[in-house]
TrEMBL record:
Database matches in InterPro entries: Acyl_transf_3_dom, Acyltransferase_3
Domain Acyltransferase: residue ranges: 7-352
Keyword hit for Cell membrane: no
Transmembrane domains' residue ranges: 12-34, 54-72, 104-124, 173-195, 207-233, 245-265, 335-354, 375-396
Keywords: Membrane, Transmembrane, Transmembrane helix
Full protein name: Acyltransferase 3 domain-containing protein
A Pfam family matched in the record: Acyl_transf_3
GO molecular function: acyltransferase activity, transferring groups other than amino-acyl groups
Domain of life where this protein originates: Eukaryota
Amino acid sequence: MPPRDANWIDGLRGIASFVVVSGHLCTALVPWLHSPANGPKLAPSIFQLPFFRLAVGGRSAVAIFFLVTGYVNSIGPISKSRAGNHDTAFMGIARSALARSGRLILPTMAATFITWTLANTNAYHMTKHVDSTWIRQGWHRQEPTMWEALMSLVKAETETWTIGWNDYDGTQWTLHLFLEGSMLVYTTMFATVMVKPKARMLIYGVLYLYFWQLGLAIGALKGLNIVMGMFVAELHNHYKDSATSVLPAPIPALMILVGMFLAGYPQDNPQYAHWSHVMLKMMQSITVEKADVRRYWDHIGASTILLGIFFSGTARKVLCSPVFNFLGRVSFPVYLMHNTMIKSVLTWMIYLPSAMNPPKNEKGELLDLQRGTTMHVFIAIGVFYYILYRCAALWIKHVDPICADIVNAATKWAYGDSQSREPRPILGNGHVDKTVLPS
């Protein structure tokens, strides 16, 4: 894998990608952990408590991806705007906007092709019979003819970007929102390149209020986080290297802790615990009717964490470590492949013993396949993570360069000139400052 400069934004995105995977594992195997307790009068388990529940809560991690998208895609244009290099800023926006679609769509198409191939070679047969509702919902039949299989592939590849759904991989529903979010950044940057930083801050405020009152989950997930990411990019260009010395040392750490608490707002049944019920009532009082309260708390918690890290030299240093730098480099292929591997590799490991001796009821009728012992499941998950990240590293080494070459060739033809390739991450990709980790 080609080396890339350590970057704290990369590290943050790598953690978010890991948490998304753990969140889907939780949904598949222990969905009750998404509640703050198993009942209104029952004591919570350790992973249902604040802070601990972040290990199995992927929703706030998705919010971080959108924050990173807004942040890294706007750093370059903001920097050039502040320096008065307006022509260069416009050119950068134009080039990024043209290349962005290909750099996001091509790897996603490759991932869809892989899961389509597995489905149509009957590799998902076992998922139809397991005792996990989430895994079972991910089952896709083997098409009866090659023509129907090809038509289903075209449908999945297209609808990922039109209606936001992929029949072969439901976790790709966010990808068209990442593309839309990037275009929101480029549009905002294009409209504000000529304005003063204070005026651009005012525009951020107006956009933020618009998405807040929208009330829809998409507004809270995409709009609020994209705008906040651009705001933090503005802070970066304002404070530059002095950002980590702006606030007294305890404050950034406190912001990170508060953000982690807020980001732990439960996905299900917030009324089962006093702390989450208070948060529910509080957010309902300041949002429009029928707003998706969960997405608002995801946004606020993730934004507070991002701001805390932005002002903390220690947190940045930790996120620049080799481990987090690696997690960041492979974050996009991990995001693309994890659901496919849950439905295949992990399902095979967990349910194979039961499949070899299918359980039956008293009438001799087949029952859902049962998972192995707790130790069996833990070992399977450990092996699953190793295979997932190993495959992601191979993806970065072999698949990403091919996608980059295709995009570069297309943009070179469109521009009519040569263009050098810069290996960058996909989710949240943009002009990343080299002194400062995308989704």
